[in-house]
Inverse folding.
């Protein structure tokens, strides 16, 4: 059983995080909220995403799973203004998700979840923690996109740096310690990532002013931020690229 | 003879209605105003459109006809702001339409009207009348476009419904009687239409808050609305699609 | 040596003028400012552009030259808001231009200037001078683009006219003397130009309310306007097209 009402903005933020990695996802529903654990088709990144029951205006659910086509969900959400109430209901008999925006009802076929994995983000020992402003990271990414398709995240006791090296040009975003919200770094750490993935992840941060990054050297980056004004949480894990030098 | 001045917004609305069905149209001009009777190339829909002399700031005309390229007219109108005055004059000698927006003059070649029909909307006995808010219909159409290329218009004594059934998903817009401006329906009526045509027609309603729909079962829909704040009127007739069930 | 700070809007205007004609340009730097003399690849038009030291917030330079990729410069400028300070520095050792916007640094490879000419705008005896409002010219150009790919500039003692003749339609923008800022014309003069070039040039006028045009009959047009609120100046020369009548 699943029946809930939620503001359009909250559901857009939730769906936006998932859509960075996959078009279809298994919604794990229980009385406490909705969770999605997903991995991208190339197995480069994964996400652990939770939207608490408190993020909904009304929420009533028992343990169940639904395979949701995220693109279709997005189509319905585009009909709604940010503050519109979205009514969601699982139609068990017909195996459909009913989505209502004002007087409009869309009955969405669900996707088979049989083949969908439930990836768990592993416990990694990442020695560095950087908390940076989302807006700063976004600007660094936009600058990087012009010169390269990968980006290095570099932390040192003095600050954090995002560096993108192209064949001709290079871009760097330097955030000294005083421009960071938090920096916990004893030794220099550097890892290289696909700019495309990193960019999509940072752009999925809508309401959280800050992003927490856990880093190592040639290790994955773990990124965390709140959604739904603290009534939900997202954790991304992105695998490093091996430097070909 | 034809010489007139009109606000850009009024002419944009008039041209917008025509452009839903055809690129070229015969303007039937007389001292009372300008009328266009047009049919689309596939003969699925027709329009009867009138802009009264009162809709113009200045208007002076004798009986005549002009074949107008609606796309070209749109190009000139895009140069104007909504409140700009457009001066129109038929140059009989050169068979051109002179269109002036401020200091800019465009001399437009006219189109041969010899092959253009003057379709009259037939008198049909459509038992149901629904008057709905344009904005509601627009939202229903946008939702439908995601799931199907046709739409059913359904009326009952309880209300009006717009239903679009795709292979996987369905969308419905339900407007109970209290959300309608007017409902005159003794028995349930349902007809199926091309969503593309219906959508273009509803989107051509710019200044009229409401749309009048006359319906039957497996019959055409007749839609009517005012243009130019009541100084003009549009009537669309759209043929039904046969349900393949 | 070259090290300067400048508001993003000023540098955007400067780069915008150059980009109408070429993707790469030689920046001639000296203590008084930066000059670019460029010609387009088809040798139809040239520009003489200067940005005075006064247009910069800080400016310090000795005589030197830099080959700049204008598109790359534009990429960095798009990261900045209009009032952001851009820091520019020539890295002599690595032959790069360092561009800083807030915490972002882009190191741009420079372009070889060996093959770049330094065209000087010739002294032409153009008998007519017209000073027109930029906004009026822009509207005339937009109207012309719908009918033709060339435009005639016509001056007479009564006023200035921009005429575009297509196969079917024609467009004219008429500016009688009283709508011009200045008109100095004893005899009628008319020259025909590529609309594409003329359009790009007029659209590059951002902060100058007026454009000075010097004209003759079947002669180039020389256009002049200020950039950076008077702390810089642009002169375009555009060759005429020969009328094929």
């Amino acid at each position: 059983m699943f029946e809930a009402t939620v503001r359009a903005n909250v559901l857009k933020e939730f769906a936006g995080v998932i859509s960075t990695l996959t078009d279809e996802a298994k919604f794990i529903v229980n009385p406490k909220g909705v969770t999605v654990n997903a991995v991208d088709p190339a197995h480069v990144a994964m996400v652990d995403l939770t939207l608490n029951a408190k993020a909904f205006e009304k929420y009533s659910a028992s343990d169940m799973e639904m395979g949701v086509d995220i693109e279709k969900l997005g189509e319905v959400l585009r009909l709604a203004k940010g503050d519109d109430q979205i009514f969601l209901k699982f139609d068990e008999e017909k195996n459909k998700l009913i989505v209502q925006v004002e007087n409009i009802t869309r009955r969405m076929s669900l996707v088979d979840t049989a083949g969908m994995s439930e990836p768990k983000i592993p416990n990694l020992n990442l020695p560095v923690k950087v908390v940076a402003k989302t807006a700063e990271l976004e600007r660094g990414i936009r600058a990087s996109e012009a010169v390269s398709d990968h980006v290095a995240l570099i932390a040192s006791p003095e600050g954090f740096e995002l560096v993108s090296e192209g064949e001709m040009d290079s871009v760097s975003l330097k955030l000294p310690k005083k421009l960071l919200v938090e920096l916990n770094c004893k030794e220099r750490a550097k890892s290289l990532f696909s700019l495309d993935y990193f960019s999509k992840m940072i752009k999925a941060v809508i309401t959280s002013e800050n992003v927490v990054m856990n880093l190592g050297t040639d290790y994955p980056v773990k990124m965390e931020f709140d959604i739904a004004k603290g009534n939900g949480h997202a954790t991304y894990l992105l695998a490093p690229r091996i430097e070909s030098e």
About this structure: The interface with chain C takes residues 136, 139-140, 142-143, 146-147, 168-175, 179 of chain A (CB under 8 Å). The mean pLDDT of chain A is 96.
